Amino acid sequence: MAVIAHNCPNLQVTVVDLNQEKISRWNDPDLSKIPVFEPGLEKVVKETRFKNLHFSTNFEEAIKKADIIFISVNTPTKEKGVGAGHASDLRFVESSARLVSKFSQGHTIVVEKSTVPIRTAATIMSILDSNKDPKDSKTFDVLSNPEFLAEGTAINDLQFPDRVLIGGNNSLAIDALEKIYLNWVKKEKIIRTNLWSSELSKLSANAFLAQRVSSINAIAELCEVTGADINEVAYAIGEDRRIGSKFLQAGPGFGGSCFTKDILNLVYLCEYFGLNEASNYWKEVIKINNYQKNRISKVVADKLFGTLTQKKIAILGFSFKSNTNDTRQSASIKICKNLLEEGAYLAIHDPKVSKLQIAIDLECEEISNHSNCDYINKWQFFEKIEDAVYSADAIIILCDWDCYKNLDWKEISNMMRAPSWLLDTRNVVSKKLLKDTNLNVWKLGLG
Ligand SMILES: NC(=O)c1ccc[n+]([C@@H]2O[C@H](COP(=O)([O-])OP(=O)(O)OC[C@H]3O[C@@H](n4cnc5c(N)ncnc54)[C@H](O)[C@@H]3O)[C@@H](O)[C@H]2O)c1
């Protein structure tokens, strides 16, 4: 929404959220307090906030005034009931639609921005229509306009999108939304489809991206046992234009709030329609991803003589990838839990993730009273890399933050307890920097 406000100074954009604390942080005069870390975001917010970009919890007022409403709420995986563990939980989408239905005035275009299962637009439409009073003149159009941005490069992705997808049944409504994007996106980049194609394209795009990660990770393991080098293989296959070079970096497994949830959703949809082979196919993508995290934990234990008890392991990187403070579904969470389970003591560093967030992810959020957590006193958060690695038996790089790329490994290896290990799951450390160190090195995907 900030990018829309930035590109469309004549539009008033109001972001409404139930969460008062989040909205207060978005309104905080100190821009470093806004809840999301994303390169370039502070600048965009600074230039638009309180001018044509507003943050509020006042639904009634915002909905009444709006001509177009983007539903961008969370659509997590259902935890109970029919489809638990696979299907999307649409209660937040539903409650948003009910609010729109109640407070809107005149004609309103409702845009699905959240990632939703196919045919959700029909659900939204029936909720919107349910509150209609025969006397009032409320009317609605529902459009699907899925978001393809990637965290870490979100501002750039939004400013220069590969494409903008708008699905709908009414071409006038599509025109109205298209007009907004035309302020900064070329017409040929705007794809118009029917509602269901648009909804399904988003789930499919994420499934394809996640599948590439699982594919390259599966090849990485084969490289390790055969003597091939995953970087060389990735380069060689990526030069084929039919394959392309993007998204071919082997690593500890995909994370983020979307890939797992969206594939699970696809799996559920396939099962719902009796397409069991298709459902099994997509399930395997997640299976490989989970396997990768457990495999890395096992490699660490194997390298450290089969036991991690009373060993200090430095974890470099906790977010699910660099340039974001988002830890949702981060591979680091599962790997850290596995290592703690094995008895290791963890010294965790991340340039943007807070100690509290790590505590929440490791289920130790009650850090103040030290209750309810098996891992209390078994891990510590360090703001400085040198403090995290001091006297460590092993360092595991789990995230490709720039600050890990050019460290003085000679100095670090002297600070560690020998025999010391560097396990680089992101292939961020060059061979050159490791020359003349005492480190034993394991790199993911290197035979
Ligand atoms: N995060 C991404 O990179 C990304 C990319 C593409 C698509 N998406 C999709 O966008 C959607 C949102 O993702 P997110 O990561 O921003 O989720 P999020 O959980 O970070 O934010 C969702 C927000 O919606 C608010 N909310 C819930 N119900 C509400 C209601 N009835 N009215 C107003 N606010 C309400 C919550 O308080 C929360 O702040 C999801 O469907 C996701 O799949 C996310």
Give a brief description.
The chain has 447 residues and is an alpha/beta fold. It is built from 17 helices and 13 strands. The site of nicotinamide-adenine-dinucleotide has 19 residues, from helix 5.
- Contiguous runs where pLDDT drops below 50 for at least 5 residues: none
Radius of gyration: 24 Å
State the CATH class of the largest domain.
Alpha Beta
Tell me the CATH superfamily of the largest domain.
NAD(P)-binding Rossmann-like Domain
Portion of residues in beta strands equals: 5-15%
What is the average per-residue confidence, as pLDDT, rounded to a whole number? 95
Task: Give a structural overview.
There is one protein chain. The protein is of the alpha/beta class and 447 residues long. It folds into 2 domains: 2-202, Rossmann fold (3-Layer(aba) Sandwich), CATH 3.40.50.720; 216-447, NAD(P)-binding Rossmann-like Domain (Rossmann fold, 3-Layer(aba) Sandwich). It contains 17 helices and 13 strands. The strands form 4 sheets. Strands 10-9-8-11-12-13 form a 6-stranded parallel sheet. A 3-stranded parallel sheet has the order 3-4-5, sandwiched between helices. A two-stranded parallel ribbon has the order 1-2. α5 packs parallel to α6 (120-130), α9 crosses α11 and α9 (195-226) packs parallel to α12 (276-303). The longest helix is centred in the middle third of the chain and has 32 residues, at 195-226. It is globular and about 80 Å long. The two termini are 46 Å apart. The model has no long low-confidence stretch (mean pLDDT 95). Residues 16-19, 22, 72-75, 92, 95-96, 114-115, 147, 149, 151, 257-258 line the site of nicotinamide-adenine-dinucleotide.
